[in-house]
Amino acid sequence: MKNSLALHGGAPVRTALLPYGRQWVSEEDVAAVVEALRSDWLTTGPRVATFEEAFATAVDTRYAVAVSSGTAALHVAVAALKLGVGEEVIVPTLTFAASANCVVYQGATPVFADVDPDTLLLSSHEVERLITPRTRAILAVDYAGAVCDYAALREIATRHGLHLIADACHSLGARRDGHSVGSLADLTAFSLHPVKHITSGEGGVVTSDDPELAQRLRLFRNHGITTDHREREQRRQWQYQMVELGFNYRLTDIQCALALSQLQRLPEFVARRQAIAHRYDAAFAELPGLSPLRVPSGVHHAYHLYVVRLATERLTVDRDTILQALRAEGIGANVHYWPVHLHPYYQNSHGTRPALCPVAEEAARRIVSLPIFPRMTDADVEDVISAVGKVLAAFSA
Ligand SMILES: *Cc1c(COP(=O)(O)O)cnc(C)c1O
Q1: Centre of ligand 1 from the C-alpha of residue 70, in Å
Q2: Model confidence, pTM
Q3: Tens of pLDDT along 54-65?
Q4: 70 and 173: one domain?
């Protein structure tokens, strides 16, 4: 029974489930958090500014604004551009729901775009096709940690007078043609969730080179109030003015202490993700039944996800059965994503329907995300490779 599938009662490749992603918190990180806890400032203190400056430097941009989540980062980006009712933002459908929800929060309308079949990145042709007189912005998503073709998107945006927003929640540390993600769009949103490249528990960052936009981001993160608590204390002022409707999207000093400490290891984290991806690429090159995504040339990939597409026509079962079989083997395979326009909320409230984005819909039935995170050992990586080989062999047509 050694080679029989765990799904059918055989011995699994491993007993403890390997998740698709998880954080790596070091003793230095813990010490940094403890130090923040013992300091005078738990929130709106000096660690926020220190983290923001370090982050801006790391992604080669002028301004970074820390907020309470990646979703908040996307929301303040859309709010800072004053997008609203009757205006459209083009968003790829193969993404996390928050990429589109942030547009809806401000009363604007997400227009769902299909993706390129080889890279699953937002297709520039699709963007061009979906532009109407109401279009105000393009919101690109660096799916899996690859980098969209921002040169092409910028050209389209300039020609039509549109803003360019990047959802870079997958691509911290990535570059395209030598340019860092974070410096390629008008506004770029990052997430500091534990499955992402660096973490603060929950958290997010928006970057920009534009001082006015950076000012607006800071305003929206703090209720639309022009000064924060620390600034007023320094100036010995008590008055403040709320000039816009904003939110409390602040990130605490405790979280910024963790994020700043994690940021020191970003290059190491990305390098480890790339090494794991290259081992998978080599192992899967000759495996019929599965193909990795194409990486556009010039992309220094951040590999938030390692996504493969199943050649389901060569298999006797569907993707969901493969996923279950991998999980039974102890491999926490996952799916990123079910296309956003197919979620009941968007079908009910925005009238989106199947067949709107055929490439993404077809891909969504074939994709599997395999575990990839810096703390995985080489033995973990080999477990994934053997489980994939075992499961595909058992179900090959
Ligand atoms: C993680 C993620 C978000 C949301 O980030 P949170 O920090 O969880 O709010 C948004 N977009 C994409 C593509 C993501 O992967």
Answers
A1: 5
A2: 0.97
A3: 999 999 999 999
A4: yes
